[in-house]
């Protein structure tokens, strides 16, 4: 008997132009376009196995070993239903295809990064879900088409269907059919973009982005100006900067847009804060690091960006990452030694130091644990279809014990 | 021999609609109108003695016991020159008046609150300077006229020329002659408005408001929208709320405008942060305190506002201040016992507690010293001319030893 099963992995993406606000909450249609860098799956990824089997009783899903309810009309159910519909279209056109679109599916998904890392896993998770179902159903590979479906799981998931530098075009149609992701440039165009993720400890539960963004839409008197007048120009300019590999412009816009996203969150009633004193201190360090570079006749060397949480993601050309790790460790001593996936330190430890001319008074040193972890990664590729040896489901169609 | 000398005191004011941005940095003309509550001089004030004497060598000024240089063309020199010019007008019209406008002046000023309190003293300081010179020169009392001069010392000083609720009308003329303060309502109109100042410890030197606001003017892509479309409507609505003694509306607009001021500061490049984790926690407490009140069918009971620093000022009707002190002390234990100028606690200590139904998880408790001090005050009157017994200058025309 044939087993209909496929496994795929999908990457995390971190936006440079931020998505904040929906014009349609059911279809997940945004109030503005956004743009992100896809991070390397070698370091951060969601992996998902999907199997269709007529013996299954119903659609089921396990995330990190725990079964999740697939609510009728919910986001998971919507994505699965849409993927089955695409399969049915194929089956209707080609009667030689096995009729698996009618079978219940079992889906098993894992993230290789701990939830405690504070990294949004819904983008990579829904992208991996869609990618694994697309492989299972042998759908023609059109990532923009698939991104329409991933978008309905989690808005920013649509951008994880591509590697490299990815725009989510907001679209205009009420049915959302023109609100999908497109690739601005593949990773190979600008592989030199690296990222250092600073995982920041937070003792306060933040506002969820789903409820937070709608409160901003309803109450901020600045958001509409951002949407109509600021974002379109930034989308144009940062796309141009990516095509020209102009890091200086890329960095300036990335930092400005992170700040503006947090500004409209703060302009919400009641206000929403995602950054804390540690986040602010990291900004001060990067601002000073860039100031020294510019004072020495150079250009910007790093860009910070913050999503809906206190973690910093620092984008920089690879050659600057070593200095940035030294800088962060100087102010935020680490409990564990730096995992050095690119061998920047040749096996030597990080001592923690600043570049010449750096004004050390821009921030005060914090204790161990304020920044819990540093993850060095880089721009990466899009979803990957994996071999059978990577399957997360056992022969019985239930999650393998790990 | 006649001694020409006068002493005046002037109050602190804390804005509800924030001043942030100049259209003329020399004349100190703002990019938007603003509105503040004048606080009671019984608790917080600057006191200034001015003496004109032909034996003095030059204009001199002492602030809190230290001599300050009066730089040619600087703000102090401008204010003194303009006040002398008003006196000269009088002398020119009435030859019986002593010709003291040509005499050098000695000016001695003190604040009754420590600089360490983190309260901006430039507003009360320049208002007291102008008020004491107006008394010395026996100028006709027209506070709006004097506010034009105080404005050139420190923008927000113009609002400290009045008691009660005060608007600084931005004006339109290039010469600034229509950019002055007017009283929206005197303290007697709404004496029930009290204020609790939470003095927050900060280990980081903030950006000065003078340089910060101009960086916002130059780099924020949201500020112009605020100036043109948000502030005019808020000025209208909050003035109406004050005239109607509508605390609910007053509170909502006050909090929204504090948030928006900090939002445009954050939208600046590089971003400006004035609030820290303690400030954020106080916001969370007031938001929750108001939520409980509204959930019980009531209206907003308190409003926070933050100037260019981490200190919170909480406005509330007097009847709520006791609950608010209990709330703040619960999360921010105090080293010193609460100075209770209005006898709210009848000599009993503050124990620190929350109102029924309050979700204590909205903030974590901090250690002693995170909020260094609590100052309870209320809406107050405008500058006062004081008696000779209050003089700060000795017979020799130099500061008295204190």
Provide a concise account of the structure shown.
The structure is a homodimer of 402-residue chains. Chain A has 402 residues and is of the alpha+beta class. The first copy, chain A, folds into two domains: 4-186 and 385-390, Ribosomal Protein S5, domain 2; 193-378, Alpha-Beta Plaits (2-Layer Sandwich).
Outline the structure in words.
Two copies of one chain form a homodimer. With about 400 residues, chain A is of the alpha+beta class. Chain A has helices at about 75-95, 120-135, 145-150, 210-220, 225-245, 245-265, 275-295, 320-330, and strands spanning about 5-10, 15, 20-25, 30, 35-40, 45-50, 60-65, 65-70, 105-110, 165-170, 180-185, 195-200, 305, 310-315, 370-380, 385. Chain A has two domains: about 5-185 and about 385-390, Ribosomal Protein S5, domain 2; about 195-380, Alpha-Beta Plaits (2-Layer Sandwich), CATH 3.30.70.890. In chain A, the strands form four sheets. Chain A has a six-stranded mixed beta sheet with strand order 8-7-9-6-1-16. Chain A has a four-stranded antiparallel beta sheet with strand order 2-5-10-11. The longest helix of chain A is centred in the middle third of the chain and has 21 residues, at about 225-245. The first copy, chain A, is globular, with a radius of gyration of 22 Å. The two termini of chain A are about 25 Å apart. At the A-B interface, helix 5, helix 6 and helix 7 of A face helix 5, helix 6 and helix 7 of B.
């Amino acid at each position: 008997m044939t087993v209909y099963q496929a496994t795929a992995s999908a990457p995390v993406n971190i936006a440079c132009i931020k998505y904040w606000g929906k014009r349609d909450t059911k279809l997940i249609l945004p109030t503005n376009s956004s743009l992100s860098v896809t991070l390397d799956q070698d370091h951060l990824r969601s992996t998902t196995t999907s199997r269709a089997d007529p013996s299954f009783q119903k659609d089921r899903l396990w995330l990190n070993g725990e079964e999740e309810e697939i609510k009728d009309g919910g986001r998971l159910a919507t994505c699965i239903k849409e993927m089955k519909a695409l399969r049915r279209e194929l089956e209707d056109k080609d009667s030689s295809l096995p009729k698996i679109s009618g079978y219940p599916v079992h889906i098993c998904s894992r993230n290789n990064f701990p939830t405690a890392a504070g990294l949004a896993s819904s983008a990579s998770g829904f992208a991996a879900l869609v990618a694994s179902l697309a492989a299972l159903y042998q759908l023609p590979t059109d990532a923009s088409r698939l991104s329409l479906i991933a978008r309905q799981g989690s808005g920013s998931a649509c951008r994880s269907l591509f590697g490299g530098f990815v725009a989510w075009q907001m679209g205009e149609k009420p049915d959302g059919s023109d609100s999908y992701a497109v690739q601005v440039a593949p990773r190979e165009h600008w592989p030199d973009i690296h990222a250092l993720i600073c995982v920041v400890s937070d003792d306060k539960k933040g506002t969820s982005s789903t409820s937070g963004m709608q409160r901003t839409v309803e109450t901020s008197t600045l958001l509409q100006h951002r949407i109509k007048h600021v974002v379109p120009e930034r989308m144009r300019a940062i796309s141009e900067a990516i095509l020209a590999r102009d890091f200086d412009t890329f960095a300036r816009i990335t930092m400005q847009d992170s700040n503006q996203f947090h500004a409209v969150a703060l302009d919400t009633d009641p206000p929403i804060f995602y950054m804390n004193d540690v986040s602010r201190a990291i900004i001060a360090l990067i601002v000073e690091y860039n100031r020294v570079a510019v004072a020495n006749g150079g250009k910007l060397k790093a860009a910070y960006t913050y999503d809906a949480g206190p973690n910093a993601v620092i984008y920089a050309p690879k050659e600057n990452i070593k200095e940035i790790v030294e800088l962060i460790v100087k102010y935020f001593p680490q409990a564990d030694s730096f995992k050095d996936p690119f061998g920047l330190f040749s096996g030597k430890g990080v001592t923690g130091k600043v570049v010449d001319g750096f004004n050390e008074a821009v921030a005060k040193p914090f204790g161990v644990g304020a920044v819990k972890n540093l993850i060095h990664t880089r721009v990466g590729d899009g979803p990957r279809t994996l071999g059978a040896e990577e399957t997360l489901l056992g022969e019985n169609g239930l999650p393998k014990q790990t």
